[in-house]
Every structure is written in structure tokens, then in C-alpha cells.
Design brief:
By secondary structure, the protein is α+β, with helices and mostly antiparallel strands. The chain is about 25% helix and about 25% strand. The strands form 4 sheets. It has a 5-stranded antiparallel sheet with strand order 1-2-8-4-5, with no helix packed on it. A 5-stranded antiparallel sheet has the order 10-11-17-13-14, covered by helices on one side. A 4-stranded mixed sheet has the order 7-6-3-9, with no helix packed on it. α1 packs antiparallel against α2 (about 35-55), α1 packs parallel to α3 and α2 (about 35-55) runs antiparallel to α3. The radius of gyration is 22 Å and the shape is globular.
């Protein structure tokens, strides 16, 4: 058996050490209370490993890959069930062409970020430039082409490639899951190889593992610290809406609500929000204390503006609890007693002043109806089962075929593991077959 390259072996050891460090950071979080929290923490670490490793496998800016991340059954940092997210690694000394078909999703935002992926440093994920989908010049077939370069092209759409840019983040956002159709997106380096198939040498494999090892504990610290900030607000508190700043990969066209829930088994959190009808897109969701949304394919852990009931007085009333209360706008907390709350408003016409501030109150589930409008309908078991089945089916339609670059990422991973002579621990990249979704 051939000897393993020394740098590659050292990179592997750092990778394993980074996972151990992430476990220590996660287990030591002050908001960890019990076994359920520790189990969520394990899931959180797996998400970090998957995301960091997949992004590092794509770190070939001379032959870039526009890859789907996070995967549909991997959750990291408030990722939105209404979105398809894509990431790509680029160099600020190159020039690129981003192309595809627009589809009919309500939102498309292409952001150039740097330096570093969100969550990997104080300035990481800062927005350098962005381009909104409604500004794209589309061909008769819905196709588009966007230049990413230092200097503008003679004609066509252009996204400035500013110094420090080293990665891209793209969101296709869906409001009407039944009718809106996914688009597509690819990236090529101008003048570069036509293929994104790279030779994974021991040096490249080592660099990929070293980068992954550097990122894993940084992301663990980042999300732990974010969880601490939300916990410090006090239980069952929700603040906002506040305009996003475009840092840490946040959507630059967004207003945010942030907060937390902390409930006993017989309690629900009733969140009342003035309907923001002037927003082109809105959603509301819950997550665990590390900001990972709960499993969202089979559970109603999020609702967007097309899925909620607006009451006759112009307010939306969300009911957050672990057991189905039999009312519209139920947000399933997935039997975790405490966690995070996040809301989004995008492409808002005008400002969101104090009249849009949320109210949140803890109510006993047995008394819930007393706190809701008298005409609030009931949602029976059969109707809820139909809603959840539709959710699963429509997510499967959206994700299936959405990641044509995944085989190349798997090939690169296989090459790294072949050079090592064994598999890497904890990741599930080989298993990320989105065609399985909905089965």
C-alpha cells in the first residue's frame, strides 16, 4: 500500500481534531439543558461538517462549481425551506459568466461575498455586490447571462467583482410552491477549462481538508454565539423588524425578525404580526438554539405569506407549539422545549416602522381559542395530513434535479478518500441524493 502524503495526513488529523473541537464548543454552550439539546447539537455538528467539507471540495476557482448547499436534509444557520441556495468559490483576479434559466420563483438574488464563507470570521460573508433577478435581461426562453468581472462588459448584465470577493451565494426564493417553477444556474471561468472536472492531487486534497478543518470550529463558535445573543433577550421574546445589513451572507433586500421560544408541554407561544402586504415575500420559521431549522420536509416548521391565514383585522397569528393545536398558522416546534424564531420580509416597499413590531404571549393550549378571533377555523387531522403530504411532495419537486453538480463534488470526495485510503468521518455527502426526497 502506497504511503500517504505527509501534508495530506496532517490535513486529515486537523480535520478530525476540528470535529472534536466543534463537539466541545457545542456541548459547552450555555443554552444546552438536556439530552434533547445534546442530540440537536450532534445534528448541528454534522451540518457544519457537511457544509464546510462540500464548500472546500468546491474551492477550485479556476474551474468553479455552482453547487446546491445546504442540502435539503442538512440544516445550517436559518436556511429557508422556501429557498434553493447555491454557492460557488471564485477568485477576485478572474472573470466569470453566470448563466441559466430564470424560472418563475418570486425571488432571485445573486450575491458576491468575501472574505471567507459566512460564519468563518468577523468580516466573513460581507456582501461586496449583488444582482436581483428582476433586473436580469431574459431571452425569449427565459435564459440569462451575467458577467462577474472587475470591469463592465461592453453590453449585457454585469455584477462587479470587487477586491476580496471569494465566494458567491445565490437564492431562488419560492412563495407559491404549487405554481412557481425552479430556474437553473451555472458558472464558468472566462477563458478557463470547459469542464469543472479537476485532478485531485495530494496537495489539493490536503488544502481542501486544511480549509475544512479551519472552518468547522469557527462556524461552531459563530452559531453558538448567535444562540447566546438570542437567549440573552429573555424567554419568548421577539424583536424587529430590522433591516438586514448584508453581513454574514444575509439577504441585502430583507427585514428580519429574531427571537426565541421557551415553552412547557402544555403551552404555546402566540405571535401576532401586522400583515406586511407591501412585502413581495415573507416567511416565519423556528429553529433549534444553534439556528438550525427543524426538519422541514415532514414538519410544518415554517410558513410563508402564501401559506398563512391573515385575520380580518389585518394581523397574522402564529401558534408555536409541539402538538398540533388544530388551528391555521401552526408552527411545529418539533418537541424541543426551546429554540430560535426567525422572520423575513423581502423587497418591501417603504419602511417597516414600530407599528409592525411583533407581540408574543405564552398561553395554555387548553385556553388557546380564547386568545384567537372567534372566526378562526379548525384544522382537523385529515386536513393537516393533506397539508403535510403536499409540503413533502412540493419540496421533492423543487429539489429533484436541482443539483446537477453534485456528482462532481462526490467524485472529488471519492478522490480525497482514495488518496487517504479510508473514508472521512461524520459527513453524509455521498448520501445526499435529493431524488430520495418525498419517498
Amino acid at each position: 500500500m502506497a504511503a500517504i502524503d505527509a501534508r495530506l495526513e496532517a490535513g486529515y488529523e486537523r480535520f478530525v481534531g476540528a470535529i472534536a473541537a466543534a463537539h466541545d464548543i457545542t456541548n459547552g454552550a450555555p443554552f444546552v439543558r438536556n439530552a434533547a439539546d445534546r442530540e440537536q447539537g450532534e445534528s448541528f455538528v454534522r451540518g457544519i461538517v457537511n457544509h464546510s467539507l462540500a464548500a472546500s471540495l468546491g474551492n477550485t476557482p479556476e474551474q468553479p462549481v455552482m453547487q446546491l448547499l445546504p442540502y435539503p436534509d442538512t440544516r445550517l444557520g436559518y436556511n429557508n425551506p422556501d429557498n434553493l441556495y447555491y454557492v460557488a468559490r471564485v477568485s477576485d483576479t478572474g472573470s466569470y459568466t453566470i448563466s441559466g434559466t430564470r424560472g418563475t420563483s418570486v425571488g432571485l438574488l445573486i450575491q458576491a461575498l468575501g472574505p471567507g464563507l459566512p460564519g468563518t470570521g468577523a468580516a466573513a460573508g460581507a456582501t461586496k455586490s449583488f444582482f436581483a433577478g428582476n433586473e436580469l435581461e431574459l431571452g425569449p426562453d427565459g435564459s440569462y447571462s451575467l458577467a462577474l468581472s472587475t470591469d463592465p462588459p461592453p453590453r449585457g448584465d454585469w455584477l462587479p467583482l470587487r477586491p476580496g470577493t471569494d465566494n458567491m451565494l445565490v437564492r431562488f426564493s419560492f412563495l407559491d410552491w404549487e405554481r412557481e417553477e425552479p430556474g437553473s444556474i451555472t458558472i464558468t471561468r472566462d477563458g478557463g477549462p470547459a469542464s469543472n472536472r479537476v485532478e485531485v492531487t495530494p496537495a489539493l486534497a490536503a488544502a481542501m481538508l486544511e480549509e475544512t478543518a479551519r472552518w468547522i470550529p469557527l462556524q461552531a463558535e459563530f452559531y453558538r454565539d448567535q444562540g447566546n445573543v438570542l437567549t440573552a433577550l429573555g424567554p419568548n421574546t421577539l424583536v424587529g423588524p430590522r433591516r438586514a445589513l448584508g453581513d454574514a451572507g444575509t439577504n441585502v433586500q430583507q427585514w428580519n425578525l429574531t427571537g426565541n421560544f421557551d415553552l412547557r408541554d402544555h403551552e404555546a407561544l402566540l405571535v401576532t404580526l401586522k400583515d406586511v402586504s407591501q412585502a413581495h415575500y415573507a416567511n416565519f420559521m423556528v429553529a433549534d438554539p444553534w439556528l438550525d431549522i427543524f426538519e422541514f420536509v415532514h414538519h410544518q416548521t415554517s410558513l410563508n405569506a402564501s401559506q398563512v391565514r391573515v385575520d380580518g383585522d389585518g394581523y397574522v397569528r402564529y401558534v408555536l407549539c409541539a402538538r398540533d393545536p388544530g388551528v391555521p398558522n401552526w408552527i411545529d416546534t418539533s418537541e424541543l422545549s426551546h429554540g430560535a424564531i426567525f422572520g423575513r420580509y423581502q423587497d418591501v416597499e417603504g419602511e417597516l416602522g414600530p407599528e409592525y413590531a411583533p407581540t408574543a404571549s405564552v398561553v395554555d393550549l387548553a385556553d388557546l381559542r380564547r386568545h384567537l378571533p372567534g372566526d378562526t377555523p379548525s384544522v382537523g387531522r385529515h386536513e393537516r395530513a393533506e397539508q403535510l403530504a403536499a409540503r413533502e411532495r412540493l419540496l421533492a419537486v423543487r429539489f429533484r434535479g436541482a443539483d446537477p453538480q453534485h456528482p462532481e463534488i462526490v467524485r472529488r470526495l471519492d478522490a480525497v478518500e482514495t488518496l487517504l485510503g479510508h473514508a472521512l468521518p461524520l459527513h453524509t455527502i455521498h448520501d445526499q441524493d435529493v431524488a430520495r426526497l418525498g419517498e
